[in-house]
Design brief:
Radius of gyration: 42 Å
Structural class: mainly alpha
Largest sheet: none
Distance between the termini: 116 Å
Order of helices and strands: HHHHHHHHHH
Length: 324
């Protein structure tokens, strides 16, 4: 099995409409089964993405400029974080909020063009994933692959969990090198002066000064101010807080929609039960009426038969009397 062939098939599948994914996957596996059974098995094992992940894949396919701009913003944010530039982080945080809102709307528009409408909860998940793209280089590579399987989240502290998040994770394009913090300039350590010892007759040799004391006397390299570090962490924490609040708001709105739907279905169920009860009552009455009508019909038929016989006898008598 060639990895390049598998990647090509996977890219085609994850760029296709979501409703036809399973059928397209089966057709692709069947097409290659005759030449490469291992490749066919690998194709059949490709998971179907969630709706939100599919929408992100569509965004990458149809509007790659949007994710590319967010990726560039993420690089700038990591550089500011590395240099502990709190002012730059605050400005970039505001820029990210604006870009994320626009990117989510673009993703919803692209999904509509592909025949899918996204709920508010899905839009929130897409925003969280795009935020993770800006916070984590590996997450950016996963999204950029266009083979995302589920949405991502970032807490601003730990690496984004990519377990099961992307198809063919071992065949992702190589990610660009990470931006590293500039190395701190360390002042050279001063050589510890050798202890001066004086040996007098009958006196003991003076002990050498401990090395630790000499090291302590050496100048220490300057460290970044604690306030700037705290400001940088505060900016990230506020971003995480806003994202969590948006997610919670989306879930609350989804909860309200579901509650309203349940109330409507309960009312509809009650109406249907009432209609069913009324229909069952009408059915019972109709059955009873049928029994009564059938009995009356039998009696009427017997009466009609008797009347017919009586008429025949009367006619015969008339004929006899008329012949005399």
């Amino acid at each position: 099995m060639e990895d390049e062939a598998l990647v090509t098939i996977a890219n085609q599948l994850y760029a296709s409409p979501l409703d036809g994914f399973v059928a397209a996957r089966a057709a692709a596996a069947k097409e290659v089964a005759g030449q490469d059974k291992a490749l066919a098995a690998a194709v059949r094992a490709l998971p179907k993405p969630s709706v939100a992940a599919w929408a992100l894949n569509m965004l990458v396919r149809h509007r790659p400029d949007v994710t590319a701009q967010l990726g560039g913003l993420g690089e700038r944010m990591r550089a500011a974080q590395a240099s502990l530039d709190a002012a730059a982080l605050r400005e970039l945080g505001r820029e990210r909020r604006t870009m994320l809102a626009a990117a989510v709307e673009t993703a919803r528009s692209v999904a509509r063009e592909q025949g899918r409408s996204l709920s508010e909860a899905m839009a929130t998940e897409i925003g969280e994933t795009l935020r993770a793209l800006t916070a984590d280089q590996a997450a950016a590579g996963a999204v950029a692959s266009g083979r995302l399987l589920k949405v991502l989240t970032a807490d601003g502290v730990n690496d984004v969990d990519l377990e099961g998040a992307v198809a063919l994770p071992g065949l992702l394009p190589a990610a660009p090198s990470a931006i590293t913090a500039p190395e701190a300039v360390t002042a050279p350590k001063a050589a510890a002066p050798k202890p001066q010892t004086t040996t007098a007759p009958g006196s003991r040799k003076s002990p050498a000064r401990p090395r630790l004391e000499a090291v302590r006397q050496a100048p220490r390299p300057a460290s970044p101010p604690a306030l700037e570090r705290a400001k940088a962490l505060l900016a990230e924490a506020r971003d995480a807080e806003e994202a969590a609040m948006r997610h919670a708001t989306g879930l609350r709105e989804q909860e309200e929609e579901i509650q309203a739907e349940i109330a409507g279905l309960q009312q509809e169920t009650a109406d249907l039960r009432g209609r069913l009860k009324a229909a069952e009552e009408r059915l019972d009455r109709s059955r009873k009426q049928l029994v009564t009508t059938a009995a009356e019909a039998k009696q009427a038929a017997r009466a009609a038969d008797k009347a017919s016989k009586t008429a025949m006898l009367a006619q015969e008598r008339v004929l006899r009397l008329g012949s005399n």
